[in-house]
Amino acid sequence: MTVRDKEVEATVAVVDDDPDIRQALRGLLRSVGLGVELFASVQEFLGTARPDLPGCLILDVRLPGRSGLDLQDELAKANLHLPVIFISGYADVPISVRAMKAGAVEFLTKPVRQDLLDAIQQAIAQDGARRDDERGFARLRADFDTLTPREREVMMVVAVRFNKQIAAELRISDATVKVHRGQVMRKMRARSLAELVSMADKLASSRAKS
Fold it and tell me: Rounded to whole angstroms, how far apart are CA atoms 130 and 149?
């Protein structure tokens, strides 16, 4: 059964087939003000919609059916960036190395308490920073979409060109370049040319990855 606490700023999902461990972790996490979701298997976790809140996943390595490592792989393939903290009853070095190489925040051996809380704090901060970056880029992309085609051209070459070079490349006058650049900075809410250059770099990098 899934247990979900509402009206919290962060939620931790726990996937462990031992009901006693699930309840013990629920009590520990709630004692420090964290929301908790409890799952007995990977299948149960994947079949449940999660709240759109910062959080992380506490994942047992050995589970019935699909293992914790299988779930970590599935999340990566689905491009889901939920930070993972593994817990295990066994100090298995090869498995812990594999989990950490795949991006796990921490690999802890049961029993856990303060070391787990420290790892959770790190994981939630990591997830919050990622969400802030994504919101910032979404705003940047939305601002870029308000530019005219010519303004987009000016913005994307401004990082490596002076006004005269931009004018020659785009076959427009210096004065027109200055007007377009002013409009670009206003629409992009750039406080300086350096900030506009940084925005252009982020947009160019995103296009290169897609």
Answer: 30
Better-scored residue on pLDDT, 106 or 162: 106
pTM score over 0.85? no
First CA to last CA distance, the chain: 39
The token pair that represents 131 in the structure block: 């969400």
Distance CA(93)–CA(150), nearest Å, equals 56
Residue 14 has φ and ψ, to the nearest 5°, of -115, 125
- What CATH number does the domain containing 56 carry? 3.40.50.2300
Question: 168 and 127 share a domain?
Answer: no
Number of separate domains in the chain: 2
Q: For the chain, how are helix, strand and coil distributed in percent, rounded to 5?
A: 55, 10, 30
Cα(72)–Cα(94) distance, integer angstroms:
16
**pLDDT tens string 50-104:** 878 899 999 999 998 899 999 999 999 888 889 999 999 887 888 999 999 999 9
- CA separation for the pair 191, 24 (Å, rounded): 50
Domain around 191: 146-209
pLDDT computed for residue 150 by the predictor: 86
Give the tokens for residue 171. 């076959």
